[in-house]
Write a structure and sequence with these properties.
10-stranded mixed beta sheet; 6-stranded antiparallel beta sheet; 36 strands; 15 helices; alpha+beta; about 750 residues
Amino acid sequence: MTHLEPHGAGVTGPAPRGLPELDDRLVAGSARRDFLAGLDPVWQAVPSGFYDGPFLGNGGLAASVRRPEGETRLRIVLGDSRVRDHQDAGGPLWGGTRLPIGHLTLGTTGEVTGVDLRLSLQDAELTGTVTTTHGTVALTAFVHAGRDLLVVRCRPLDGGEQVTWTFTPAPAVAPREAFYPEQRPAGLQDNPPPVVTLAADGGSCVQDLACGGRTETRWRTADDGGGSTLLCTVAHSATDATASRTATGTLAEAGRTTTGRLTEEHRSWWHAYYARSFLSVPDARLQSFYWIQLYKLACATRADRPVMATHGPWLEPTPWPAAWWNLNVQLEYWPVNSSGHPELDSLRTALENGMPGLLASTPEAFRADSLVLGRSSQDDLRSEPAGAPGTAEPPPEVGNLTWALHTAWLAYRHTMDESYLRDTVVPLLRRSVAYYLHFLTEDDEGVLHLPATYSPEYGTTADCNYDLALLHWGCRTLLDATARLGVQDPLAATWQRVLDRLTPPPQDPDEGLWIGRDLRLTSSHRHYSHLLWFHPLHQLDLTRPANRALLRRSMEHWLGLTGELQGYSFTGSASMYALLGDGEAALRQLHELLDGYVRPNTMYAETGPVVETPLSGAQSLHDMLLQSWGGVLRIFPAVPDSWADTTVHDLVAEGAFRISACRRGGVTRWIRVHSEAGEPCLVAPGRLTGPVEVRALAGRPGPTAWSLRPDGLLEIALPAGAECLITAAGSTPDLTIAPVATPDTFRWGLPPARDLT
């Protein structure tokens, strides 16, 4: 390490004159409300389906609004990430499948002819009016942030409108049966029909399950000062009928609480949620898209809820009613880290509780020291059988758990929560890598090879780049993690041997990386499984020109084979271009995503809803604004020239650093680095022109020393709880954190054509 010498930065005392604290008033409180209001999706045409309608959720209970084609009334379709079957037959896609619930119909007197609705991101509430042939109804709806409760208030405004509610249950049938009825497994029992019971002020629907479990939906309405308020809850119990008691209790407690109090509780959670971080870019459509993804994340998951399925909590017709582990889960959770929201990390919860399911997923012969995870599971992590390298059936797709643990490692690196590393990440990763070790072979020159494994979603090949990259990352990470924890692991020498002798990634000078040793990439491939060496694992050092050239060559070949590319092909390539510092290309890929794949409400589909792709688009934007791989904080590493002004505030980097920075007129004006954990701090300051200076902020513990290394990196001694300001030497910049101006406005949803205000 370069020797650090103090440079007048101030140790812990007052900062030099002219350096007050950061002023975040323009991104807090009412200012944040005004900013987000400019990004709210709106509906001035009636949505007809899931992909163009408003959606709500709290990580468990969820709802979406539409008037289906051919229908005349508005409906609210219910979903819940906890509602699933619990039979064994057919595994997670059949006996353990997520199950639909049903929908509520807004029973207006007249037929719905129009809407004027707005989804407030700040408040997570849908508000506006519904117009019918008999009049107009004002509507407010939200899924409570902390209670399993849908709240809908309706108030007739004019005409002869009256409002009632009815519930229509959805049969508890595996969604996959509508797509692949011939695959229905022997032994799968039909669930009994739902039983609806009506009362004067509402009703209930009991869906018993053949496994002994139950889902209960319960609702009631009450007059509320000139209108009526609907309260609805869904409860689920896996193997008994306690869902009824839970639903009754939830609704009774809500009935003892005023609507105003419920609203206050709900808004308080969401306002605190958005206060954790901020970013603004001069691209109205992309900026709005980003903030809707943050809203969507908190609708789709919380740490105490099941790991996200491909469809989130909104179960529409889909052949994918489970969590998918060969890309989907990983991409879903990436933006959780940079945006600073560990309270959403249900992947951590699943891994912490998942050992029984992982053992059941692992072939019995290897359970003593290894773990492997098949392609799909529910939150218990019990997957369909996972194959073994060198075998044909089931397909030997063996890297999924290791990749999921990379996502867990990122969660650790962004929080530096050592208990998570020690108790969960390292023990599971040790077993995941051990599964590979059983199958490694050594050639005559001492080079280690893997037998045939499956590269999602292309084919089976020896020395598959997907698995080589994951094995390499796993061994390197285990060595780093055990050293940090002070653990002398008997397998350390084996891990080092793998790093020293593992065969290089199969490739050629023209096409770049192959799928594997005996399988080239010759047809269009939506997955970037063969490129994991670069993204997201960072195992090929991009500070080396040869590796940068290899990545660019590999991407050009991959993207040049068109026909099968899908939305996440463009988010992955956007992040890879960002790694190369090519902001223009990264932005071009994100615009391709928005132009060709994202639906009016920012949802995305491949046969059914697939939530990871738009969520990973949010992470691609993070990658353009902040990167922290390799122990270096890279500020504005891939900002396109057209983004002359850009603001980030409290984005989180590896090492548990919170980063704020301001770019104005194409130049980085200042960078604030706050250290939560006292980790080594290396900063690549981006387009900060001229000599730089590192100083303390007023009244804040600051750096104890800093130096500028020959490679252009700033090395800063920043204790835990301290922060520093990086500026051009001698400058006194405006430390106001504010949104940037956009040259246009844009509304997601269904606004009038080109009326985008």
